[in-house]
Amino acid sequence: MSDLLSNFWILLAIKLVAIAALVPVSALVIGTAELKISAHMQSRIGPYFAGGRFGWAQLIADGIKFFQKEDIIPEDADRQVFRWAPALVLLSTVALFVVIPFSPTLIVRDLDLGVFYVLAISSISTIGVLMAGWSSANKYSLMGGLRAAGQLIAYELPLVLAVVGVVIQAGTMSMVGIVEAQASFEVFGTIAVPYVAVQFVGFLVFMTAALAELSRIPFDLPVAESELVMGFVTEYTGFRFLFFFLGEYASMFSMSAIAATLFLGGYHFPGLDPAIWGPVVLVAKIFFLAFLMIWFRWTFPRLREDQLQTFAWKWLIPVSLANIAVTGVFKVVF
Amino acid sequence: MLDPSVLHHLSEAAVAIELETPDMTLNIGPQHPSTHGVLRLVAKVDGEQVYDVQPVIGYMHRGYEKISEVRTYPQIITLINRIEWVSGYANEIPFLVAVERIMGLEVPERAQYIRLILTELTRLSSHLMFMGSYPLELGASTPLMFALRERERVLDLIEGVTGGRFHPNFNRIGGVKPAAGAGPSQKKLVQDLPKGFLEDTRDAMDRVLSTSDELEDLIAGNEVLLARTKGVGILPPEVAMAYGVTGPNLRASGVDFDLRKRSDYLPYDQLDFKTAVTETGDCWDRWWVRLVEIRESARMIKQAVDQIPSGPLQAKVPRVIKVPKGEIYVRAENPKGEMGYHVISEGGQVPYRVKIRSASFNNISILPHILERILIPDIVAIMGSLDFVLGDVDR
Fold first, then answer.
1. Residues from chain A contacting residue B48 (CB–CB below 8 Å)
2. What is the pLDDT of residues B274-283, one digit of tens each?
3. Residue B183 pLDDT class (50, 70, 90 cuts)
4. Judging by beta carbons within 10 Å of its beta carbon (0-12, 13-18, 19+), is residue A141 exposed, middle or buried?
5. FRET partner for B315 with CA separation of 20 to 30 A, picked from A299, B95, B199, B207?
6. Does residue A206 sit within a domain?
7. Superfamily of domain B68-183+192-321
8. How confident is the model at residue B310 (pLDDT cuts 50, 70, 90)?
């Protein structure tokens, strides 16, 4: 058994299958959660019949439906770019799962520059969005794509700067290293507290910027359906549309996982053995953050483009810079 | 072969031409998720900036004015409540009053009160629809569900009296339709309103009032929504009056003009109510005026329910309605604004000419004026705040 696991290729195959299963499953679970939670927030019932009880199979049925749809490519579209854009979006999401540590050992690859990798990979999806917007030969799509690009530039900075505080404090960029640093991080007394206790400014900035990265309300300008019809996905049908959909919910999962790892102590919880309980603890934290995102989505309207940019450049970036300075000072003093 | 230096200049010229960014013409509609129907806006945009918007209407013209010339008066009543389908019942009132005044009919007071209650219930349903759909256009979908839940109660009340939710076809020339079981010849005044209707209405109005507080909490306490609406799409009062804007849109601009106070088409003078007027005339004020009107309408309905007199439901009218020669213009305060009918009769069963003045038509005529020099998201914010219905625009 251990011989089998130590073979590089077999291990790689296992990891690939695990990720390939985790991405759609996480997207389905969060998507269903969004349907049900939003329904109850709006005094509706939500999906009810699919699958027999509670409509648990609603999104699976939706997925099957999408595969039956015709795959329409507009006549004036840039066909190759149009075809590859959804794949690129999903690819960046899948690649994010590589560095999420579910327990000290349950991680595809613990990179030394794990945080750096996360920030770099998560920006690729915006290139996919831009490709989709450009190649659709539709003015609404184009505007959606350009809005996404503008949003990326504005919100990638606070996202990175918010993480810098954590990296300074942990002294490492490895995801497992950051969790271990939090496991031994004590502020008052003997119980280990996660970094959110001291990095709460960074946490707030990170979550806000993550919402913008995910293009969710109140930052959903790239798809703003009442203005741009459906933004960059306007011309997509069938399984290509499904790719965007899957990518959106899977990256909600992965972004929440990263936030949980960096700020909430990841797989670590005081009193629980991470080797056994790690995945459960992490998934619980992920769902807590995903719930917050769903809550925002069904509460807020969306911002205007200029307000979005003002918010990023005039508020989030200065705040996160100040956070870095304060963190640095404390790191040197204590 | 050209001189290399000329080629060099040529390429520079080409670059200069390509870098010029011409305005893009964006066709918003007629099929678009935010336009409430088949309205087409031709917008000149430069990136997110909008320079000029021209509305193109007429995709929904159904020819009600023309078809009225070949229909009898009772048939026209059925037609015209489809003009503005969100508040169908209120459309009929000014036409009925016009016809009754030409015929010289005295409508019994109880029928007038029933008309008033139903008109105000219609106003509630129309404004509640706006309360929900406006945040939806800005991206918040939860208020829609809250508002529609309440609107359903209001529609239930209307259905209880008339049997229909949107197009009740309940008015008769000279009064209202006697309820089922009470035939036109019946002398006893039973069953004109369903049993328990007055109490149910009082309870429902209390619930509407509490829901309006809930909606205020949900929407007025929302920073993002305030940022999207305050100071956006300011409509100066003199412009509004020049374009003939009426209804809540005009009152939001600070003009205290409400036909319920100024006209006597229904017994509004018996009720104590205030008109909602705000100063600025931005999108937020237009939302706020409608919220206040919901509360005022609910109060009005409560008063009307308390005061409703007993008596007959219909004036004495002949079996075949023939209107004498005459001409009249009657206008009324509809949920969307002033709605008026200019009826010309040459005698006989059909009118010679009916001119319909609908509120939404004038209300959207200011679009080119207030959609200048804004951002694309503001188009939706401003258009939604005017609360128009395309059927009312095109007729």
1. 143, 305-306
2. 888 888 888 8
3. very low
4. buried
5. B199
6. yes
7. Cytochrome-c3 Hydrogenase, chain B (1.10.645.10)
8. confident
